[in-house]
Amino acid sequence: MLNSRQLRYFAAIFEQGSLTKAASYLRVAGSALSHHLSQLEAELGTTLFERKPRGMQATAAGLRLYDHARLILRAMDSAETDLRAAGENISGTVAVGMSFSAVKAIGVEFVRRVMTDFPDVQLVLSESLSGAALPHLMASDIDMALVYNPPEDSSLRAVPVLEERMVCVGSPQIIGDTEAPITFEKLLELPIILLRQGVSARAIMDDVTLLKKIEARARLQMNSVQAIAGALEAQLGCVIGTRLFMQDQLAAGVVNARPIIEPELSRTLYLCHLSSRPPTFATETIRDVLLELVRQSVNNGHWDARLIAS
């Protein structure tokens, strides 16, 4: 039966790339490490590494075991930290993924609150286009993520947080020198720049049918916010987004925004966790801070959205 020592030794060999380096890293004798690896391979009935002149190369079985070992060891470390923290100061590492819009709305204040109120928490904050956060969550690289319109998946626990109304953003020369609403059909006649958010464009809006129509008409598809902002200012097209998404450009007056009607377009922000990973004191606390700041940002008008009761 596998035990934690075997997994830690195996993971060290995998990450260090050689028995000698792993033994130095773990501060154990190389012969002992080699013995444990041989025992593990005999127990599993498979070869985990190919012995090369310059180190160890994982086999297919070794690669699969490392994926499991990484998750198991991280869960064990989190459990130990969590239980040690019971009744004491909140501590441990908490990794949070946020969409670009969420970082613009609450990112700085979120970091400030965690650093001020929970100095023993090591915060890891990852910003990404929304869809890109999901693979990191599924791989347990992050503990929670604020993402738009995640796919239905039994391994995910997704709680809706807020709903945003989408607008058309572009230069007056492209979308007209007006803030009057534009119909969806008229929108499709414009040179649309599609924001590719991670693995898909689902994060743009809730309605997948309308999204497919937009994808079919899009002149450009980009996954760079900076490139899209530059393209808007250069009058190369328009983008479907939120006022928060292009807040700086709107404030500077280089672009304007028009609400989309017939139908209105919206997207929903979810707070996602892995169903298989139990919460810790630290992750629960940081989650509550995150949700509190989202509510504050919406209530004070900084985040133009509608809160969803949960």
UniProtKB/TrEMBL annotation:
Molecular function terms from GO? DNA binding; DNA-binding transcription factor activity
- Annotated signal peptide: none
Q: Cite the InterPro entries for this sequence.
A: LysR_HTH_N, LysR_subst-bd, WH-like_DNA-bd_sf, WH_DNA-bd_sf
What residues does the HTH lysR-type domain cover? Answer: 2-59
Q: Which UniProt keywords apply?
A: Activator, DNA-binding, Transcription, Transcription regulation
Which parts of the chain are coiled coil?
none
Per the record, the domain of life is Bacteria
* Taxonomic lineage: Bacteria, Pseudomonadati, Pseudomonadota, Alphaproteobacteria, Rhodobacterales
Q: What protein name applies here?
A: LysR family transcriptional regulator, nitrogen assimilation regulatory protein
